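Need a sequence for this fold. Nothing fancy.
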C-alpha cells in the first residue's frame, strides 16, 4: 500500500468532460499523482475538510463521520483498493472492537471522511502504478485549470451561513406573525438560490 495526501482539487472547464479532478500524491514522490474525477458535492466536502472549515450545521460527511466515531471504535484508514473499467473502488476500514471491518465506499466519500477523521489514505500499489501520472510541472497543470474549489470554499461557506441565518430569521418572523418581514426574507432567500443556479 502507498500512503497518499490530497495535493490539489482542480476544475477543468475545457476538458472533454468538464468537472473536478482530485490529485493524490504519494508521500515522498512529488512527481507522481493519482487523478480521480469527483462530483461537485464531494469536491466541496473534501475542500471544506482540507481548509478545516466547519459549518454551523453538519453536512452529510460531517454527520457520517460523527456516527462512525460514536457508534464504532472510529475510522482507522481508507484504501483505494482497485480500478475496474475506469472506476476506482475504495473501502473504509472501521474499528469494531479488536477487529477492523471493511466497508465498500466511493473514493471521494472515503477521502472526505478520512480528512475529517485525520486518518491515513492509502492506494494499492497496483492501482497507483496503473493509474498514476507523472506531473513534473504541477504549476502548469494548475494554470490550465479554473480556480480550484479549495480557493472558493470561503465563498461557499459564507453562502451556506447566510442561507442558514435567513432561514432562521424567516422562521422567527413567521412565529411573530410579522408577514411583511417574512416576505422580504423569503425574497432574499429566492435571490440567493437564483445566484447559485
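Here you go.
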Amino acid at each position: 500500500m502507498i500512503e497518499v495526501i490530497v495535493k490539489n482539487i482542480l476544475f477543468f472547464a475545457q476538458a472533454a468532460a468538464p468537472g473536478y479532478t482530485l490529485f493524490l500524491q504519494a508521500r515522498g514522490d512529488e512527481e507522481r499523482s493519482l487523478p480521480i474525477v469527483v462530483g461537485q458535492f464531494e469536491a466541496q466536502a473534501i475542500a471544506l475538510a482540507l481548509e478545516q472549515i466547519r459549518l454551523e450545521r453538519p453536512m452529510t460527511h460531517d454527520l457520517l463521520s460523527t456516527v462512525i466515531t460514536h457508534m464504532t471504535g472510529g475510522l482507522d484508514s481508507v484504501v483505494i483498493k482497485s480500478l475496474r473499467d475506469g472506476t476506482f473502488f475504495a473501502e473504509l476500514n472501521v474499528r469494531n472492537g479488536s477487529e477492523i471491518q471493511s466497508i465498500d465506499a466511493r473514493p471521494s466519500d472515503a477521502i472526505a471522511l478520512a480528512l475529517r477523521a485525520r486518518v491515513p489514505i492509502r492506494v494499492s500499489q497496483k492501482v497507483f502504478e496503473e493509474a498514476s501520472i507523472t506531473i513534473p510541472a504541477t504549476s502548469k497543470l494548475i494554470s490550465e485549470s479554473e480556480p480550484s474549489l479549495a480557493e472558493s470554499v470561503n465563498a461557499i461557506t459564507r453562502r451556506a451561513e447566510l442561507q442558514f441565518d435567513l432561514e432562521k430569521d424567516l422562521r422567527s418572523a413567521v412565529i411573530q406573525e410579522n408577514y411583511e418581514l417574512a416576505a422580504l426574507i423569503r425574497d432574499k432567500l429566492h435571490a440567493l438560490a437564483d445566484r447559485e443556479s
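For context: The chain has a mean pLDDT of 83.
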